[in-house]
Every structure is written in C-alpha cells, then in structure tokens.
Design goal:
By secondary structure, this protein is an alpha/beta fold. It has helices at about 10-25, 80-85, 100-110, 160-165, and strands at about 35, 40, 50-60, 70-80, 90, 130-135, 145, 150-155. The strands form two sheets. Strands 1, 2, 3, 4 and 7 form a five-stranded mixed β-sheet that branches. Strand 3 and strand 4 (about 70-80) form a beta hairpin. The termini are far apart.
Length: about 180
Amino acid sequence: MAAHISDFSKTPFQILLDLINEQHGTALPETAVTFAAPIADATTDDAPAHRLGAKVTASATTGSGYKGSKEFNYHRVGLSFMDANEPDLIIETHEASAHALIPYLNTTFGINLTTDDIEDTPIPVQEPDVNTQIELVAKPGSLVFAGSQALTFTLPLVELGSVLTMSTLDGLYPPAAVVE
C-alpha cells in the first residue's frame, strides 16, 4: 500500500520530500534535492479523491553526495477538497485578496498554503451581508495543490451593541433663556 501523507502543515517542499522518503525508505534531507515546477498530467487524475496528476523532477544539489535527477509522477491535492470538507463555508472577511486569506484558510483546513501555491485573486468590494464569490486558483507551479475552488465571502455586519456600548446618555439640557 502506498504511503499516505496527511501532515499538510509542513511546507510544500517538505510534504513532497516526505512522500518521496516514505515511499523509498530513505531519509533525504531538504538540502539534498531541489524540485522543478511540476507539470500537470491529466492522465493520472483521481477526481473522486480530489487528486490531480502531476510530474515533477527532483535534482541532486551540489555537495549533497548525490548526482543527477529523477522524474516522479504523483497526485497534487485539488483545491476542491475545501468544498468537500466545508461545503457550506461562508468566509466573513474584510480582506482584499486571496493572499490575505492564507492564514484563515490554513487554520480552517489544517494546511500550509503559501503565496507560491495560489494566485492573488482580488476580493471585490462587497456590500454588508451580501454573499460574493471568487475562484481560488492554484498556481501551476505549486508542488502540492492544483485546480481551483469557488469560495463564498460576506462582509460581516457589525453588532451595533459592540460599537455603542454606553446605555445611559447624558448631555441634553434645556436651552439657556434668551436675554435681551
């Protein structure tokens, strides 16, 4: 049975290297290889599991004790997994772009998206309490993520009581008499 990597809190580089090490019974350090940008390979897509096929080349680094390169076929995680895990998710935000949402997405889904993984899609200016959608798109060079996912946003309404905190007002007095 193939290794199952489920710790997506690591960097994309670490995740792919862990997969390689796990399946080869090796312990290559991060300094031993570099990865070229992956190339999509639709012949190995696994849509029901939100996995999209890719090919990547690992090359030995100078001074690592290794030489040459090796091409791997593997599956990147389709961003569609977000909808499968949180189908009714509506993100309440004042953020202006997808990159600004990375910390929220990482916390919500237990992943480690970086600005290298997704396009910086702008979030349109919104009216309060009105849903808006953007397409979150993986960059072609992401080592771990692929595809896209529609995300729904709303500008949260501010609770009036959180802004107007005093219950007693004092300041209205009868006008002073006009003296002629």
